[in-house]
Amino acid sequence: MWQKAWLETRWRFLIGLAVLVMLACGGVFEYPATARLLPAARSMQPDGGLVGRAIRDAIAIQSDYRGFIWWQWVRQNFTQLWSLFAILLGSGGLIGQGASGALFTLSMPVSRTKVIGVRAAVCFAELLILALVPSMLIPVLSPAIGESYPFRAAVVHALCMSVGGACIFSFALLMSTTFTDLWRPALVTCAIVIGLALVETALRQSGPYGLFAVMSGERYFREAAVPWAGLLISFGVAASLLYGAAGNLSQQDF
Amino acid sequence: MTDPLVVHTSELRKAYGAVDALRGLDLAVPAGSIFGFLGRNGAGKTTTLKVLLGMARPTAGQARVFGLDATDARASVTIRQRAAFVTEDKDLIEYMTVDEIVAFTTSFFPHWDRDLEARYRRRFDLRRDQRVRTLSRGARSKLALTLALCRGADLLLLDEPTSGLDPAAADEVLQAIVSHVAARPLTVLFSSHQLGEVDQIADHVAIIDAGRTVISRPLDDLRAGFCRIQIVFDGDAPAATFHAPGVERIRRNGRVLTLLASAGADAVISEARALEPVSIDVLPVTLKEIFLDAVRTED
Q: What is the pTM of this model?
């Protein structure tokens, strides 16, 4: 079952790894050019509205290398693309195979709970690697541009991303036990995630409990405090969604 | 295999929304039998096999395999440990190679017979590195059968095992099943539209129609019990009714009255003599005639 789960998800995982690694490298090597633009950016006087405040906030945060990495890489590219690959890995589970292989798999002496449990475990492992490998490249590559980035921060952000974002994967998995094709679970989950992101952006005061605030480790970046409560809530939600997916699968006729 | 019945269903019902796939199916498959499961398209054969393996949940009734409740999730895993299922479409994992799908299946069955696997690979000419999706229909059937036979199962559930195969490939598959059963204690429950195949290899037969069992008997009893009785009269045949047991159907055509009897001819002949016919002939019937009659009766 483990090998089957790996074979079914490996291309999505490997493509995700390649994309995230390239973007992590790009993020590091982009910094010198951005740093040269910062004095000019600081001289701008944006208005006092929501957009103006956001621009001032972005400029202030990116005034040093660690801030730049968090703002450009962790908060944006990393969070968005990791979420996308979490959705893709969660979509297309057992019944997503349609007529191919589902009955054969179900005719094996294995419970449906184990089938979905193994699939989830393999994907969680892949998502953890998708978070850790690109994150660890940041401190490794930083000396190449004359900067440094703490390994501890890279690890904490990777863990925040994978534990905090586990509920995105679990929701996609739940959807894939509801719809029989690959695309509907992915599209429904994408719509929900985008909706959540918009709500969270509008309510900037969602604090450490907002999904994306937890995933990006905002509290750790600003206050050097791991968002344990947010991580625990995300883990609980992910576990509940996974339980729902297993229950959903066990009730289905094939 | 100590259970006298390997498969036993009672009043089994299954509805998919408003459609009743099974409407009180009773089935008793004795241990060691080759049990032919006949029915028209949509009669409920595949649904029955899926219920037995826990792939579909019945709406009502009982389904037991090896004496275990097939509707219980934990028991269902034990049932699948001792059973093999070949679906009508020969559903396999498309992206795997022959070697990979063999390895995948082997991992579930500690009593996997490597020698038998090697023999079937040679006999069926299955290439190790070929992807399942590139196999011909015949090769798929042979691979599915190899995966079913080598695991040391006590029960084979075969859904239309020869559907879509040319006569040579169908014969090869049937021969493999028969020789496998001859070599070890095994129960085979197979559904088929090919009545000739059922006649050739089955020793028990059940005919189902519209989700209900119409006939279920040992094939020899069926052959011995069923007969066609042709009664010829001088003038037009009378519109007679017969009270003898087992009169399944009466047809009147000019001077000839034709009866299909399922409990032998003696009682019917005695009753027919009172009508003073010119002649009474008892003719054997084929499984096809019995099948057609059984499913027609239920319309």
A: 0.80
